[in-house]
Amino acid sequence: MTSDLTLVSHSLCPYVQRAAIALAEKGVPFERVTIDLSDKPDWFRKVSPLGKVPLLKTGETYLFESAPILEYLEDSQPRPLHPRDPVARARHRAYIEFGSQVLNGIGALYDAADRQGFEEKAAALREKFLHLEQELDGEGPFFSGPDFSLVDATFGPVFRYFDVFDRLGRFGILDGLEKVGRWRDNLAKRRSVVEAVAADYPADLTRFLKRRQSWISGLI
Ligand SMILES: N[C@@H](CCC(=O)N[C@@H](CS)C(=O)NCC(=O)O)C(=O)O
């Protein structure tokens, strides 16, 4: 099967991964074009209004921003990843945004200049996961039970950061959060989540963290 969908990507970007996971879950073939965000090509600057990845090219149109891209895939492709119930759908959309706020917290964590700043950011991040521990469906394996959803596509890339953080130290951010821990393990096993990044992702992320010249860089 051929596809006219192209995902404009960067190797580490968790927002790109959301779209790649949704496409894989839907069984939709797509091309990937990877760009260097530190040296953005002219064609990319012209078609990306915010200068960010992901972009999804469909026909001659470049869609930008991961949340609308996910919604477009829901509207245009098979195998729904949103629940049908309107309240549940709205709640899932809200937790996709919550996932973006968690990613902001992760960015603040790895950019913290010193240990005290790092610990403050770690505590703020843990608050968000404590909230998730309350919200999660205890049965699992996914956010809302048996069906993989866009919230799962959002959090697979979130937990992937922790696989690398765990190699650098014991920061305790997810300690004792049993439902979150089980969710993390289940997402790590999901084929679409595994295949959303290249095999050298951990080394690539570690190099990225080293270059931040922040407190965590000093642990590498
Ligand atoms: N709100 C955007 C966030 C996307 C984003 O932050 N992408 C980053 C890479 S992960 C980016 O392209 N940054 C531009 C840059 O580094 O210049 C979305 O959901 O798509």
Automatic annotation (TrEMBL):
InterPro entries hit by this protein: Glutathione-S-Trfase_C-like, Glutathione-S-Trfase_C_sf, Glutathione_S-Trfase, Glutathione_S-Trfase_N, GST_Omega/HSP26, Omega/Tau-like, Thioredoxin-like_sf
Record domain GST N-terminal: where: 3-81
Pfam families associated with the record: GST_C_2, GST_N_3
Domain GST C-terminal residues, every copy: 85-208
Keyword line: Transferase
Enzyme Commission number, as recorded: 2.5.1.18
Protein name as it appears in the record: glutathione transferase
